[in-house]
Amino acid sequence: MQTAIAKIRESNPSLAPVTVKPLSAARKDWSTSCYIHLNLSNTTRASEKEPRVDLLVLWMATLAAHNSNWEVTWTPCKAGSDKRMFIRFLDVTDDSKTGNVAATDKILKWANTKGWTVSNVYPYKGAVFLTLAHPKHVDEIADNNTHIIKGFEQPIRVFRGRQIEIQNPFELAIIGVPTEYDTYTIEELISKWLRSHFRNEGESTLAGIRIPPREPETIVFHMTTWAATSEVLSPNAQTAFVEFFKKLCPNMLAPRLLFDVNTSGAFKTTGNLRNDFHKGAESLQKAFQDLSRRVTDNEKANQTQHLATQLQISSTLQERVLNTQHALIAQNYGNMLEQNLAEVKSQQMNLRITLIGITDVRQLEDANKIKQALEVNQKELEEKIKTSRQDFTSIVSSSATNLIQPAPKIATIPTTASSIVPSAPPGLPNPTIPLRRTSASLTNIPEGWELRKKPRTSGQQRDRGSENPPLSNVEAMNIDTHGEVRVFNFLKDYSGYRRSRKIPCRSRSSIMKPILLLATLLFAISLVNAVQATMVPPSSTSTFSIYALNANGFHRLIAAYAPWNPGDEGDTSDFWKDMTSLCRSTTTSWTLAGDLNATISLFERRSGGVEARRQYLQFLDLTNGHDLWSDNPDRTRVNDWTCRSSQPGQGNIIDRIVTSSSTLTDAEISVTDRHNDWIPNTDHRGIVARIMHSRPLTNDDIQNGETDLNFQRRPSSSPRVKMPLKTEKEKYQTFRDGVDEKIKAMSLHRQMYETCRSRFVIS
C-alpha cells in the first residue's frame, strides 16, 4: 500500500500527504486490510473550521481506480474492531477435542477446497470465526444463509460480523426503531423532525437518510457539515428528540455517531441465547397450559349454566301451559253456565206464553211461584257467569290478585313472649316486599273460638266437601346447636300429629343428631277451615306454636338442610334424588322448607357448589314444585338476603320454601323485618311465608257448580308500578297514548273543559 501511494503521489502531487497504518498492531495474524490517515500539519489543522473530508474523498476515488480489486470505504469503528472480513459459523460445537479444534479443522478444510484465502480461524463460545483475505469471498459465503460442510450432520448457519458500513462522512444512527409500525412512516416522521429543527439560513442541513440492509430497527442519516452534525449531538437536541418520540417510540434512542455505535457494540446480544429461548419456551408452555385450563373451566361453567337455564325455561313453560289449560277449563265452565242461563230464560218465556188466557187464581199463584224461582235461579246464574268471566280474564291477562276475595277481619291471638328476646344487629336492610303479617293473619282464627288441644285419630278422613281451601302459614328460621332442646321438644309434640320421614344429611362443621339434621327450621303451621279448631301449645323453650283449625286436613311438611355441594362424591350426592323421590311419592300436597343452599337466579347470588343450582332446578322440574321466592321479581340480594355474606351489605337468598303447585292457590314470602326477628348465634335472617292450597277439583265438582277452582293462582303481592329500563323508553310513549285514549273514551277531556269554563273566565 505504501508503494502504491508513493507512485500515486508521483503522478498526482496535489494530493494531500497520508499515512498508512495496519489493521491491528496487537494481532499476530496477517491481514489484507489497513487504514489511511491524513498527515496534515498542526498549523493546517488549526486553520480549518471543518474537517477536510474532501481530501480523503479524493484519495478514496484515486485508490479505487488504481486497483479494482481493492474495496475502499470509510472506517466503521475503532482500529482493530472492523468486522467486515469476519464470518461466524454457529452451532458447530465439537467436544471430541479441547477448544473445538475438530470443528475449526473441518471448516478450514472446507474453505480451502472452495479456493478462499483464509487469514485466521478460531473457535469462540460454541461458534467458529473465519477471517478471509478478500471481501468478495466474504460476500459469497454470506449470501447463502446455510452451508453443507463435510463432517457435520446438519447444514451450518453463517452470519456476517454485525456492523453497519459507513457510506458518508459523519453518519449518525438512531437505534431502537419499532418494527410494528410502517418503516417508511417512521422514516418520514424522523426526516420531517430533522428538517424542521436543523436549518441554516432557511435551508435544511439534513443531507440524506437511509435504512441499512438487515437492520430494520436502525435509521442512518448524515448532515451537510460537521457543525450541523455537532448540533444534532448537542444535549438540548438529544433531549428534544427523546421528548418528541417517547410516546410513539418509547425504546428509540437519540442519534449517535455510527462510528461510536459500531465501536461500542450496541448490536451485541448479551447472555446465552439458547438459555433465553429455553426459558421463554417454558414460560409460553405454562401460559398455554393455564389458558387451556381456564378454557376448560369456562366450558364446564357455561355447560352447567346452560343446563340450569334450560331447566328454568322448562319449568316456566310448563307453568304457562298449565295456566293455559286452566283458562280453557274456566272458559268451558263459563260456557256451561251460559247454556244453563239460556235454558232458564227459555223456561221463563214458555211460562209467560202458558199464562196467557188462564183465569184460575190457584194456577196463577203456582205459576208466579215458579216464575219467582226461575228469576232467583237466573240471578244466581248471572252472578256466577260474571264471576267466571272475571276469573278467566284474570288468568289470561290481568293481575291474579283480583281473583282472591279479601279475608274477613279476625281477632288476634296473644302469644307468650320468650324470656330471651333476640335483638337485630345494626345494618339490616328493609326487605323489598314489606311484611303484611299479624298474629291474626297468621292464624285466621275467628274471634271467640275456643282453642283446645285435640289429637287426630287415624280414623278421621279429610273433609272433601269443604268449600273453603285450607290455608297454611309457614314461618321458618335457622337454628344452631344451642337450640337442640327447643327443637327436640317442639318436634316431640309435633311427632304425634304427623309421622315424618328423615333424609340423612352430613353437616360440614359438625355431625349433629338426626333430629337436628332434619329440623333446621321451626314451623308455625295453621291449617284453616270453618269446621273446628284445635291447638298444639308451644313448649316452655319455644316461641313458636302449631295451630290446626282443620283436623281432617292432610299436608306433608318437610324440613331439610341441603348439602353445600351436592355434586361431591360422598354421602350427600343423592340428597336431591332422595328428596325428589319423597315428594313425588307424596299423594297429598306438600311443602319443603329450610336452608337449601341453592338459588335459581343470578341476582340472588350463587351459594353452594357448582351442582347446587342445577340439581335444585331439576328438583323443581321433576316434582312440579313452586319456589315461593320466584313470585317476587323485585327481590335483591341487598335487601332480601337470608344469609349474610362476607361482602358488606349483601347476602344470599338460600333459605327457601317450595310447595306443590298442582293445588296451590295463593302464596307469599318475605324476610322478617321486626327488631326481634333476628336469629341469634347464626348469620341467617328468618323468613315468613303464607301458603294456601285447595283440594283437587274433580269433574263431579264442576257438574255440581263448584267454583273453588284450585288452579287460580292468587299471589298476595300488591300491584306495583315497574319503571321501564333505559332500553325500553318507548314504553313511556305507549303509556301516554293509552292514557289519552282512555280519557277520550270516558269523555274526561270534555268534563275538564266544562269544569274550567265554570270556574274561570275565558275570553
Automatic annotation (TrEMBL):
Q: Report which superkingdom the organism of origin falls in.
A: Eukaryota
Which of UniProt's keywords are assigned here? Answer: Coiled coil
By its UniProt entry, which Gene3D superfamilies does this protein fall under? Endonuclease/exonuclease/phosphatase (3.60.10.10)
Alphabetized InterPro entries for the sequence: Endo/exonu/phosph_ase_sf
Q: Where is this region: Disordered?
A: 444-476, 698-720
Composition bias of kind Polar residues appears in: 698-719
Coiled-coil stretches noted in the UniProt entry, renumbered to this chain: 364-391
Q: Can you say what this protein is called?
A: Endonuclease/exonuclease/phosphatase domain-containing protein
